[in-house]
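Researcher: Please predict.
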Amino acid sequence: MKTNQALKEQFRELARNNLARTVRWRRHLHQNPELSFHEEKTSQFIREALTELGIPYRDKVANHGIVGLIEGKNPSKGIFALRADMDALPINEENDVPYRSLNEGVMHACGHDAHTASLLGAANILRETKEHWEGTVKLVFQPAEEKMPGGAKQMIEEGALKNPDASGILGQHVFPQLPAGKLGFKSGMYMASCDEIYLTVRGQGGHGAVPELTIDPVLISSHIVVALQQIISRRASPKQPTVLSFGKIEGNGATNVIPDSVRIEGTFRAFNEDWRTKAHHLIREMASGIAASMGAECEVNIVKGYPFLKNNPDLTDKVKAMAVEYLGEENVVDLDIWMAGEDFAYYSHEIPGCFYRFGVANESKGITSSVHTPTFDIDEDSLEISSGFIAWAAINCIS
């Protein structure tokens, strides 16, 4: 049996030696992106890779999801899960690289190709070292993170964390705000709940030159959008991070045409379920009330999305300490809360979870773009850490 230090060095060496293969996996996935709930070829590629590695799996979980199992010595000692998402975004890639997306209008602009390749790389390391660690590692390849209701919820409902039952779960995500080679952690509340807000204001359209004969839904919508911000500035506690943003207003009128209706679309983010529920009520009440007071009506549809993501403090502290040991203290940073949503949150409400970030930026290589942009890319050297460290953390989290 190897010492812990010797085994750690072997994990590092395997991650380094297998980097070229991990990069090839990532590039194939990047060239062949698929949108949420349509990851058929991506799923096939993962199945083929796991088969090549000799790792058993269960497929067709949440349609295109896959759950693999790697057993070490004494497999029943404990079970720990690792999760990677696999879907892409409806963005047309602008990067001039050999592995540019081959699917017009679809791009891995959020790094899920890197997440999946990293988990395959970790699986390869775990497979090669399974005689030197105890327990079982569960590999969760999840579809549809980017689109509600999210693949995580369905994966859980279809038993991805059961049979055998995982005691905890790790997830990692690219972070272009950090240079490649660094990891970032946040204990406790980390990412916000995420709800979609749809408002339809119905009035009475007409000629723009005779507004007195109309009930102008454009003007009324303007009042509603401005007034709803009072929910954030005056009804939410300053100690309670909250965001209400509207990104789309559509009236389909013209310079001299007042339309009959206006559609408004936005998002609401929070970190507290009681406040989240209250805010939904306030949005409905205020939007409907303002419209009614001006002679119109407002239909309010709030689609409840992902819950807030909470990083289990004990698990997160443990994994962060491992990162310091694995990379050095100078390469491990503390993160602030993040108002974006992530359906890893569903796992974090089921079992202890830790969702952390790995840096992928490299200014000298011109790799600095944010996620969800057409020029997003990663420094592929970061895949050595993302594959090696998550494998190392997994076997040390088994209990």
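Model: The radius of gyration is 24 Å.
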